[in-house]
Structure prediction request, 414 residues.
Amino acid sequence: MKGFSTKAVHGPASAKDPHGTLRGPVYDNVAFEFDCAKDMQLSFEGRKLAHSYSRISNPTVSEYEERIRFLADAAGVVAVSSGMAAIANVFLALAESGAEIVTTRYLFGNTYSLIENTLKPWGLKVVYVDLTDPKKLAAAINERTRAVFLEIITNPQMQVADVDAVARVAHERGVPVVLDGTMTTPCLFKSKDFGVDVEVISSTKYISGGATSVGGLIIDNGLFPWAQRPNLKSWAEKYGPMAFLVRLRREVYRNLGGCLSPHNAWLHTLGLESLDLRVQKSCDNALALARHLEKHPKVRAVNYPGLESSPSHATAKKQFSRGFGGVLTFQLADKAEGFAFMDGLKLIRRATNIHDNKTLVLHPASTIFCEYSAAEKEKMGVPESLVRLSAGIEDVDDLIEDMDSSLRALGGPR
Ligand code: PLP
Prediction:
């Protein structure tokens, strides 16, 4: 089994279902019975693998985690309740009060808020640098740094860093790389091949199968020597390369309670099977829309790593296997024109999500980034004139017609 789609559809060999069903059941339950008290003790001590309570593990969720592990060729996976839960769990498992995370200001708005408004008051420190500049990254890392964090394609700036270069700088200094791979998933970008230690994904997006439900993933690629980290040393002595995920499952993840529901795990497993088809179609649509908008007289600039004009194009081409993602952003004259364009659309939906089957549009500065001041938005690369489009899987000619008609209504060409 070599191809991505074959792997996604069939998954790793698992125990035959007693009824021969080709799609596993949803074990929608909480507690699991033990044959004897001793087995129960061994399970709680982590000496015998068994499900005990669905906040900690569940057979439907485990099957989904195993399918992702197989596709990503990773050491292990923990599925969580959302993409935000994935990021929060990883930061809390790697860092402590007084420790530092090195990242960029080009972050998803809620991730920036998690750092600034939730974790900073608990003592986490953060250093923002331009992660496309290895020298600046090297200078930002010190003995208190616990992780370098980046997004594979920053949203809405659509910047792509050279992940290999980031990993080399971080690893030379004994620091793991955590990457948010929501925009690509293992379908477009195999993070393990580029030195990423831990990948987090909002499976709410592509993987869920077209916006069916919220979920997140934490993937340990098995590359980082966890014994080097003081807070994981004793775990590494016991669990070797699984130290990070075992500690996560038995402490941070268990204690925070952000588990994925079995029903959502089942939906995301189903979504996984058609991931390749949907990603391919949305990437093809995004590229066609970006090319069309780039030539449009009313559009001032288009940000999409698939365009030759993008400063990230060469890096993206080197890293991504079959497409440049389904999201693009573009600039009109100002916010008023952005709103008028959005309101003029008949087919494309005004909604906050990405990687839905439907093409969606939003105005980042007044929605996801609305809580930040004009100065902060400027530093975060979110101008008022920017519109974001997440390409769905419709027929592209219909999308172009809808956009053109709305752009036409904006008034005469400049
Ligand atoms: N990471 C990225 C890049 C995102 O775009 C999002 C949501 O839009 C998240 C994380 C958070 O995911 P969720 O909504 O599943 O919590």
Q: What stands out?
A: The chain is about 40% helix and 15% strand. The chain has a mean pLDDT of 96. The chain has two domains: 4-272, 275-408.
